[in-house]
Amino acid sequence: MSKQVQEIAADCRQLPERYIRQEDKEYGNVTNADVFLPAEIPVIDVSLLTSSPLELDKLKSAIINWGCFQAINHGIESSFLERVREIGKVFFQLSPDEKKKYLREEDDVDGYGNDTVVSDHQILDWTDRLYLTILPRDQQKIQFWPQNPPHFREVLDEYTCKIELIYEVVLKALARSLNLQEDCFLKQYQTTEKTSARFNYYPPCPWPEKVLGVKPHSDSSAITLLLQDKEVEGLQFLKDGRWFGVPVVPGALTINVGDQIEIMSNGIFKSPVHRVLVNSKKERMTVAVFCPVQSEGVIGPIDALITDETPRLYKNVTYTVDSYFQIYQHGGRPVDNYKI
Ligand SMILES: O=C(O)CCC(=O)C(=O)O
Ligand SMILES: [Fe+2]
């Protein structure tokens, strides 16, 4: 496995070729990276979603317009979110040798490492990651869960329980916002669904206009819950051909829908393209939870959404770990491959 980005960044007199972004015809290049247009991403009060039709409407239009929202009053205390950030930061501050105990194996997705290389031409993301399956619990690969800090496992387990509750509230609300039975999105998954947490670490880069923390992509998940860095921004969403930066909202989780919701909603909700810029001076750390990305079951548009006026737009799809990773590394919107 090649050097971790954190090691490259520690002594970076010259940028390795493999990280330098070229002009991107589809999504624009990075050289305008310092133009950070702040997005007016709607702020949704999750505690109101079951009782307030107004808040539900706000959620629906947030997803239709942006594909994402800033979730507040979601039931997780800010002090606990801080503990989640802290276990990630402590891990990435360990010595290289210590971290390498958790290195991902060649054919695995769980573990610590830099961008998975799937082709010789792939331009690499300026990030190191710690990727852990968190659900179902019997599929956690505990050998990759850091023993340092000692409370890593306890904190991540507790975070998982809290995230599960939010996930359910949001998926039910999304269904109700389309006048569907509230468990219709949840029902498409069986017990095999796999949820994972990814700690993303973006070291500073002296040439931020030449690299990307994460290439433009959409998530394959149903929804992704992102705990942003407390101070450093970097995430951008593409809307109407322009990139908008996501501001840091204290105590909020940034939630976006993924390809699976786009398919199930027959395209009413769109899985947004997003990317990550890196900072020239400051490191950035985020924690993304993908719910559920690797369901082995088949998903397709909800029957009630297929009518004469709104015909089926997507095929039925089976997600597997392998297809997910192959596709993710290529960036873009994998869901476009499943259009009829
Ligand atoms: O770190 C971020 O801000 C977003 C990361 C992301 O988009 C991903 O991990 O899929
Ligand atoms: Fe993403």
Automatic annotation (TrEMBL):
<dbReference type="InterPro" id="IPR026992">
    <property type="entry name" value="DIOX_N"/>
</dbReference>
<keyword id="KW-0408">Iron</keyword>
<dbReference type="GO" id="GO:0016705">
    <property type="term" value="F:oxidoreductase activity, acting on paired donors, with incorporation or reduction of molecular oxygen"/>
</dbReference>
<feature type="domain" description="Fe2OG dioxygenase">
    <location>
        <begin position="193"/>
        <end position="293"/>
    </location>
</feature>
<keyword id="KW-0560">Oxidoreductase</keyword>
<dbReference type="Pfam" id="PF14226">
    <property type="entry name" value="DIOX_N"/>
</dbReference>
<dbReference type="InterPro" id="IPR050295">
    <property type="entry name" value="Plant_2OG-oxidoreductases"/>
</dbReference>
<dbReference type="Pfam" id="PF03171">
    <property type="entry name" value="2OG-FeII_Oxy"/>
</dbReference>
<keyword id="KW-0479">Metal-binding</keyword>
<dbReference type="GO" id="GO:0046872">
    <property type="term" value="F:metal ion binding"/>
</dbReference>
<dbReference type="InterPro" id="IPR044861">
    <property type="entry name" value="IPNS-like_FE2OG_OXY"/>
</dbReference>
<comment type="similarity">
    <text>Belongs to the iron/ascorbate-dependent oxidoreductase family.</text>
</comment>
<protein>
    <recommendedName>
        <fullName>Fe2OG dioxygenase domain-containing protein</fullName>
    </recommendedName>
</protein>
<dbReference type="InterPro" id="IPR005123">
    <property type="entry name" value="Oxoglu/Fe-dep_dioxygenase_dom"/>
</dbReference>
<dbReference type="InterPro" id="IPR027443">
    <property type="entry name" value="IPNS-like_sf"/>
</dbReference>
